């Protein structure tokens, strides 16, 4: 069994072009324009992990400090409500979801024995939508408009009568953009 | 023991029994699978056998059918039956002798009205022992939730309608209740004291109360 080449389905002319297409682009521009499932999957999980540190760990440490002793005045009720709303929202929509998705994006082609997921550009789009949606949501902190109606945002408490400021707009628009990432 | 596991009414009692049943079932499943995992981890390796796909499939097929199909069907089926049995203890229509109490949730206080007796209370609820109580729950602003763990429940107070919850206290006692649905700034301070007292004491308490204006309106 020497000198017998494994049969290839396509001519070298075609495979060379495919290899070029699936190669990782180089440099910073390559990082920004890359559509490879392994890169994007890892990046989604890392981004989710950074949101976990921000909204998961940081918020819960503050809340636990408040709850450590009765009648604590470490945080006021306004800040506490913002913290637990932010904590629930971030861990649910900006941590668990992208980490699951990144995991699937990374592993599915390996399990299936394919080069890529279908629609790699849609995968890249979903990562960027997730990142900018998450940043749009988090920018509410810069304007002191952190959502405070619970992570499930039930109406009428989250509606215009009981939450008249723009905090819930950050919530619904930011998460709306971020969850575009869940389409592919 | 916390309230819901220290039941003082028939509804709370069947819920607590269901909880204990599910805890025991969950512990049993956990113990069995931990055991299987430990067996797999610490089993001595046998010398390598020649790899044959057919017999392997036969050897592990029953594990997949048993552990992946039969066991969940049995466990979920048992939980389903236990739940249906427990649900029989939850009354859906008020018995004729039930005491009617209207509870209106406000940001952030409870309005408790006894329409037949003409009594209105704030953040306080008196009920007789041994007589079913039909709570008519509604809200004046946002969603609140009524929950007395020792008596059973919980049920939401919605601004657009009336929910009915039928509970009964078996023995006298004072219970604390807090709003169980986040309702804004002072949600944590929205507390209700529930006093369950024997029928004669309850009648005396009713006779002592100043009569409020005839109940009605939207509060």
Which helices and strands, and how do they pair?
The complex is a heterodimer of chains A (184) and B (219).
Chain A: H1 12-22, H2 27-33, H3 37-67, H4 77-112, H5 120-138, H6 167-178
Helix pairs in contact in A: 3-4, 3-5, 5-6
Chain B: H1 10-42, H2 53-87, E1 99-106, E2 109-114, E3 119-122, E4 124-128, E5 133-139, E6 144-148, E7 152-157, E8 163-167, E9 173-178, E10 191-197, H3 199-208
Parallel strand pairs in B: 1-5, 4-10
Antiparallel strand pairs in B: 1-2, 2-3, 5-8, 6-7, 9-10
Helix pairs in contact in B: 1-2
Fraction of helical residues of chain A: 55-70%
Could you give the distance between the termini of chain A? 44 Å
| Backbone CA Rg of chain A | 22 Å
Strand-residue fraction of chain B? 25-35%
What does this structure look like?
The complex is a heterodimer of chains A (184) and B (219). By secondary structure, chain A is mainly alpha-helical. Chain A contains 6 helices and no strands. Chain A has helices spanning 12-22, 27-33, 37-67, 77-112, 120-138, 167-178. In chain A, helix 3 packs antiparallel against helix 4 (77-112) and helix 5 (120-138) packs antiparallel against helix 6 (167-178). The longest helix of chain A has 36 residues, at 77-112. Chain B is an alpha+beta fold. In chain B, 36% of the residues lie in helices and 27% in strands. In chain B, the strands form 3 sheets. Chain B has a 5-stranded mixed sheet, with no helix packed on it. In chain B, strands 4-10-9 form a 3-stranded mixed sheet, covered by helices on one side. In chain B, strands 6-7 form a two-stranded antiparallel sheet. In chain B, a hairpin with a 2-residue loop joins strand 1 and strand 2. In chain B, helix 1 (10-42) packs antiparallel against helix 2 (53-87). Chain B is elongated and about 90 Å long. Mean pLDDT of chain B is 88; it is low at 215-219. The A-B interface holds A 77-78, 81, 149-150, 154, 156-157, 162 and B 107, 141-143, 159, 181-188.
């Amino acid at each position: 069994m020497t000198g017998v080449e494994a049969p290839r389905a396509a001519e070298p002319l075609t495979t060379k072009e495919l290899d070029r297409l699936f190669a990782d682009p180089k440099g910073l521009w390559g990082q920004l324009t890359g559509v490879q499932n392994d890169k994007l999957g890892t990046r989604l999980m890392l981004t989710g992990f950074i949101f976990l540190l921000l909204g998961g760990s940081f918020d819960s440490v503050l809340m636990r400090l408040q709850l450590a002793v009765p009648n604590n005045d470490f945080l006021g009720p306004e800040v506490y409500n913002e913290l637990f709303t932010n904590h629930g929202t971030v861990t649910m929509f900006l941590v668990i979801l992208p980490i699951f998705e990144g995991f699937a994006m990374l592993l599915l082609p390996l399990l299936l024995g394919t080069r890529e997921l279908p629609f790699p550009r849609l995968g890249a789009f979903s990562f960027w939508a997730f990142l900018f949606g998450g940043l749009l949501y988090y920018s509410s902190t810069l304007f002191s408009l952190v959502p405070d109606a619970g992570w499930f945002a039930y109406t009428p408490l989250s509606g215009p009568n009981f939450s008249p400021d723009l905090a819930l707009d950050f919530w619904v628009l930011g998460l709306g953009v971020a969850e575009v990432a869940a389409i592919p | 023991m916390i309230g819901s596991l220290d039941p003082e009414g028939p509804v709370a009692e069947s819920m607590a029994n269901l909880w204990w049943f599910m805890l025991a079932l969950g512990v049993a499943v956990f113990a069995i699978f931990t055991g299987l995992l430990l067996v797999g981890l610490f089993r001595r390796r046998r010398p390598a056998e020649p790899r044959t796909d057919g017999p392997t499939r036969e050897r592990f097929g029953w594990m997949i059918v048993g552990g992946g199909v039969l066991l969940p069907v049995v466990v979920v089926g048992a939980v389903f039956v236990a739940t249906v049995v427990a649900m029989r203890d939850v009354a859906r229509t008020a018995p004729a002798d039930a005491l009617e109490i209207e509870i209106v949730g406000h940001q952030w206080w409870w309005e408790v009205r006894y329409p037949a007796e003409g009594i209105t209370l704030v953040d306080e609820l008196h009920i007789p022992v041994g007589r079913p109580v039909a709570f008519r729950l509604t809200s004046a602003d946002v969603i609140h939730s009524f929950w007395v763990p020792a008596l059973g429940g919980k049920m939401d107070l919605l601004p657009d309608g009336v929910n009915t919850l039928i509970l009964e206290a078996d023995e006298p006692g004072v219970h604390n209740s807090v709003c169980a649905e986040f309702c804004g700034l002072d949600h944590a301070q929205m507390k209700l004291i529930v006093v369950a007292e024997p029928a004669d004491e309850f009648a005396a308490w009713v006779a002592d109360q100043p009569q409020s204006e005839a109940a009605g309106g939207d509060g």
